[in-house]
Write a structure and sequence with these properties.
Layout lengths: L3 H4 L9 E2 L2 E2 L2 E2 L2 H31 L4 H12 L4 H20 L8 E2 L8 H32 L5 H6 L18
Parallel strand pairs: 3-4
Antiparallel strand pairs: 1-2
Length: 178
């Protein structure tokens, strides 16, 4: 049975060096616990506080146009997730290729993550850049377009709102593009 000090071991400030250079830093169990508790707290806040408030705010809209605008305001923060993933995939792919190993030096890790070989790192980096980056770019572009232009709504809703009629990138008979 391990002692309390071993269980809550904090990673040293200067990680031990390895043959390939500076070893990655391990995240301690305390840090892991804090991250997990913060995520659970945010999820509880989202479900029990923010979702009911957002629903009330949407229902309190005077008309469909104002409700659509409020829905877009609520959906805009959700775009941060694909943008953050896009940046992570690009950086992880580039750094895997640059350092020739994964995890690359200085990366934060969960405990006991094995350091992979150069072949694995090169394949990972190439796949991240060749497949992950274009897929996330397409997903992010589509989500941004759907939130900003509201094309997922029915045309009847757009017809009711004069403010929404000229926002579509697709030319319509009433748009000034034609």
């Amino acid at each position: 049975m391990s002692s309390v000090k071993e269980w809550f071991r904090i990673a040293p400030e200067t990680p031990p060096s390895t043959a390939a250079g500076i070893a990655p830093r391990n995240v301690s169990r305390v840090t892991q616990g804090v991250i997990i508790l913060a995520c659970l707290g945010f999820m509880a806040l989202w479900v029990y506080v923010l979702t009911p408030l957002a629903g009330e705010w949407l229902v309190a809209a005077k008309d469909a146009c104002q409700a659509i605008t409020r829905l877009r305001i609520l959906l805009l923060p959700m775009l941060l997730v694909p943008y953050a993933l896009l940046v992570f995939v690009a950086l992880d792919g580039l750094r895997s290729l640059q350092h020739g190993r994964w995890p690359w030096p200085g990366m934060w890790l969960w405990k006991d993550t094995p350091i992979r070989s150069k072949t694995y790192a090169l394949w990972r980096g190439r796949l991240m850049l060749a497949i992950g980056l274009p897929v996330l770019l397409a997903l992010t572009a589509y989500m941004s377009w759907a939130v900003l232009f509201g094309e997922l709504l029915k045309p009847e809703v757009h017809a009711e709102c004069a403010a929404l009629q000229n926002q579509s990138p697709i030319p319509t008979p009433k748009s000034p593009i034609l």
